[in-house]
Amino acid sequence: MSKTSQEHKEKALKQVRFGLLTISTSRYDKKKMGETFTDASAELAEKILTDYGHKVVLRKVISDDSEMIQAGVCQLISDHSVDVVLSMGGTGMTPTDVTVETVLPLFEKSLEGFGEAFRRTSYDEIGGAAIVSRCTAGIMRGKVVFCLPGSPQAVETALRKLIIPEVGHILVHSRAKG
Fold first, then answer.
1. What does the pLDDT look like over 45-74, one tens digit per residue?
2. Residue 70: Cβ within 10 Å count
3. pLDDT digits (tens, 9 = 90+) for 11-35
């Protein structure tokens, strides 16, 4: 690691506050009906984040619906207790997977390298199926939004190998005054 990189890492935030957004019509419908359901990806994300000393301050389940996704992301971005929005689900190729199309226009800056790095890392784990992931990330009002696939394996890979090592550093830069 270069001296400059090391200096940047030293200035990175050590504890980050996350808002988790599960995007799943089936889970949302169960929640709405008062039924019990498992949100394995959000539960795993919360465990991993807290194990690394970060905080999960909000968790929300919404449907695969553009208006709900936009409202959910904007609500979390507007919340002063949230530094990072981690959405899980809706990044696939089916007609109902609209997370990426909904969130991309909201970004002030896109972090294309995140999707590229995630697909490369996933390729090492799952092979060619990694190409169907359309995960993305970007900056909104000094905060970071990560849009991940909904599978627990994808969430774990993204958190452990990409997000946790860099999120504090990304936030410092996203909040820097020109």
1. 999 999 999 999 999 999 999 999 999 999
2. 15
3. 767 899 999 999 998 888 888 888 8
Structural tokens at position 129: 């199926």
Q: How far is it, in rounded angstroms, from Cα 136 to Cα 52?
A: 22
β-bridge pairing 84-88 and 17-23? parallel
Q: Where are the domains of the chain?
A: 16-174
The per-residue pLDDT of the chain, averaged, comes to: 93
3-state secondary structure of 13: coil
SS (H, E, C) 86-120: EEECCCCCCCCCCHHHHHHHHCCEECHHHHHHHHH
56: which strand partners? 18
Do the beta carbons of residue 81 and residue 17 sit within 8 Å?
A: yes
114 close to 136: Cβ distance less than 8 angstroms: yes
- Smallest CA-to-CA distance from 103 within 130, 121, 85, 122 is with 85
> Has domain 16-174 been given CATH number 3.30.450.40?
no
Instruction: Identify the residue whose tokens are 């207790």.
Output: 81
